[in-house]
Design goal:
By secondary structure, the protein is mainly α. The chain has three domains: 1-40, no CATH class; 48-187, no CATH class; 207-327, no CATH class. The protein has helices at 2-8, 12-19, 30-39, 43-66, 72-77, 82-99, 103-111, 116-126, 137-150, 158-175, 189-206, 209-221, 223-237, 255-267, 270-287, 295-308, 313-325. α11 crosses α13 (223-237) and α14 runs parallel beside α16 (295-308). It is globular and about 75 Å long. The chain starts with a helix and ends with a helix.
């Protein structure tokens, strides 16, 4: 204790009150903890891990009480870094709220699952065994379908809009069918976001290029859908924050969005590729003609996808046409 007091410049009288207890570090905070971290190797990592454990224990209790059974082995395998723990805890709390049929809490937590890494964590809960984290993911999907009918989406508030859209997207992606009728001639941003969520879920589930073509036609007719497309891409990629007015205030381009698009060109199905080349990429190019100074990388990604082979003629033609337009 004398050594720690000397190295950290924390008074021995302060340490003496804590030193005799096994969990004394859990009661240290503020400036004292900062001084100890500077003096004790490994303490920062210990505090971080202990915080994650405490948070996760609380979330897992909520899941158990709500009727969800988590597979510890699979849960541990997704914790590749500290961010994964945070995102998975958020996703688990969203799942517990859904199982309790609490639409307000579910919307609030689902809204925080909007983003590429957050979405991966939420997907891990609905995947079937052996990939999924839940023993019975169908229980969660069933409750999610029920919540679609009761969760409010018409108030245009940030969390209800995003949370409802995430719910529609995940149910659609898992079942292959949009769980609610949302007309494309939508008059408000909340419905526009939900409509897009259903389209993207359909594309990822079925890979149907016709769904992408239909969405493209709707964007040509509805300026609100087009504005919502840029907002959705930029917020999901993390280039802009979700603002209550759903405004698009972008500084410094869209580097994360561009990186996501380039990865999706290589990895996702032909229906989604058709959406990218006819809708998503043109919307980004309208905002930033340089495509984040990555036009050459975009051409290369499209060329590589074409060389790998695209079965659908319409998708192949649209991909080649976009690549040619940038030469």
């Amino acid at each position: 204790m004398a050594d720690v007091a000397f190295l950290s410049q924390v008074p021995a009288s302060t340490l003496s009150r804590l030193w005799k207890e096994v969990d004394w570090l859990d009661r240290v905070s503020g400036a004292t903890l900062q001084q100890l971290i500077c003096a004790l190797p490994g303490l920062a990592r210990y505090v971080e891990r202990r915080s994650h454990v405490a948070h996760l224990e609380s979330v897992l209790r909520e899941c158990t009480e709500s009727g969800l059974v988590v597979r510890p082995d699979r849960l541990a395998s997704v914790f590749t870094d500290g961010r994964s723990v945070h995102y998975m805890a958020t996703a688990l709390r969203a799942a517990a709220s859904m199982m309790r049929s609490d639409p307000l809490e579910a919307a609030a937590h689902l809204a925080r699952c909007w983003g590429s890494q957050q979405s991966i964590a939420l997907d891990a809960l609905i995947l079937p065994a052996p990939q999924g984290v839940l023993v019975e993911p169908d229980l969660l999907i069933g409750r999610a379908r029920e919540l679609v009918d009761v969760m409010e989406r018409g108030k245009n508030s940030l969390h209800t809009t995003v949370g409802y859209g995430v719910l529609v997207h995940k149910v659609t992606r898992q079942t292959g069918a949009v769980p609610v009728d949302i007309p494309p001639s939508t008059p408000d941003r909340s419905s526009a976001f939900a409509y897009r969520s259903g389209v993207i879920g359909t594309l990822l589930s079925t890979g149907d290029p016709a769904a992408a073509a239909s969405y493209h036609r709707q964007l040509e007719r509805n300026p609100l859908l087009r504005r919502n497309e840029l907002w959705s891409l930029a917020t999901f990629g993390g280039d802009i924050s979700q603002m209550p007015d759903f405004g698009v205030r972008i500084r410094g381009g869209l580097p994360r969005t561009v990186a996501d698009v380039l990865a999706d060109i290589a990895d996702l199905n032909e229906g989604y590729l058709h959406y990218l080349v006819t809708t998503a990429i043109p919307v980004v190019l309208d905002y930033d003609p340089s495509f984040g100074a990555a036009k050459s990388a975009l051409r290369q990604a499209l060329q590589q996808r074409l060389e790998r082979g695209i079965d659908d003629e319409q998708v192949r033609h649209a991909s080649a046409a976009l690549m040619k337009s940038m030469q």
